[in-house]
Amino acid sequence: MVEVRMRVNGATATLDIEPQVSLLDALREHLGLTGAKKGCAQGACGACTVLADGERIVSCLALAVQYEGREITTVEGLADGERLHPLQEAFVAHDGLQCGYCTPGQLCSAVGMLAEHRAGTPSAVTERLAAPAAELSEAEIRERMSGNLCRCGAYNGIVAAIREVAATGEGVAG
Questions:
Q1: Whole-Å CA distances, 141 to 29, 55, 152
Q2: Is the pLDDT confidence value at 17 over 70?
């Protein structure tokens, strides 16, 4: 067993876990944070996406011990008390969810993706790599969110929600 300390959703967490425990399992089984889902357990579906120091990661492929001393944000940590994060509000308003299984990962990924875009990180479809971050096109959003799958097909609502929040700049870190 090893002791791992990290900040999760703003609170310090100390875990006594085996070194091979994934970050996803540490969050779900040891901290009771079940928002991040275990989908494929291979890093292909994005259902387990969380933010590590503001960057999106698939937590099923990360060992909890790798995140000693780091800040982890799960979907449970996006809201500000009773006030939903702007992306959560937009997902509801634009029907960016159906069954909801992928939604926590989609939301965390969208928060991280908007921060990446604001920082000028290009995607595979970015036309001018040296240009300042422009308005996110539908193609940019779809490419940047392609690591998060939705079996229900709520992609149109997800894209609309992200575009709305990107246009306002509200709730976008960076």
A1: 32, 16, 18
A2: yes
